[in-house]
Amino acid sequence: MKKLFFALVCAVAIFATTSCGGGASTPADAAAECIELIKAGDYEGFVDNLYFGEEVTAEEADQAKQMYLALLKEKGGKQMEQKGGITSYTLASEEIAEDGKTAKVAYETTYGDGSTDKMKLDLILVDGEWKPTINK
Predict the structure, then answer these.
(1) Residue 106: how many CA atoms within 13 Å on its side-chain side?
(2) pLDDT tens per residue across span 84-106
(3) Which residue in 16, 36, 76, 113 has the fewest CB atoms around it within 10 Å?
(4) Helix 2-15 with 27-39: angle, nearest 10 deg
């Protein structure tokens, strides 16, 4: 159950984002920036870069960000601490959709306890920047 929850927290943190930095030029660059934020424990920086969609109001986005931030700090931080944090990661593949507006980046993280997880991050191109996106 703990593994499932940790995978869910990581998935939310990773799948939820599209670009975690200032103007990453490729989806892989954006994914690396997102992983680095999580690795550094900068959950606020990570959550600030999440894209919730055009139909979401600014107020709804702020509420969602607060919810994700609380989840990451409470549950994700504890799980990350138990696993010894992220020691390294490898970007395995980058798939950009034909329309050039969305992408998926597959990666593998290695933790301090030696365990690994394979995940994918969904990204969207917003105003020329790749951002992590929340899947509904």
Answers:
(1) 4
(2) 999 999 999 999 999 999 999 99
(3) 113
(4) 130
The amino acid present at 7, given as its one-letter code, is A
Bridge partners of 125, per DSSP, are: 130
pTM for the predicted model, two decimal places: 0.78
For residue 24, what pLDDT is reported?
63
> In the chain, what are the domain boundaries?
2-132
| Structure confidence at residue 136 (pLDDT) | 55
Do 37 and 45 meet the contact criterion of CB atoms below 8 Å apart?
A: yes
**What's the pLDDT score for residue 132?**
94
Task: Classify domain 2-132 at the CATH topology level.
Answer: Nuclear Transport Factor 2; Chain: A, (3.10.450)
- Between the two ends of the chain, the Cα-to-Cα distance in Å is 23
User: Do the beta carbons of residue 16 and residue 84 sit within 8 Å?
Assistant: no
List the beta strands (DSSP E) in the chain.
Answer: 86-96, 102-111, 116-126, 129-132
**Axis-axis angle for helices 58-71, 2-15 (nearest 10):** 140
Q: Give residue-wise pLDDT tens across range 13-22.
A: 443 433 354 5
Taking alpha carbons only, the member of 35, 85, 52, 46 closest to residue 69 is 46
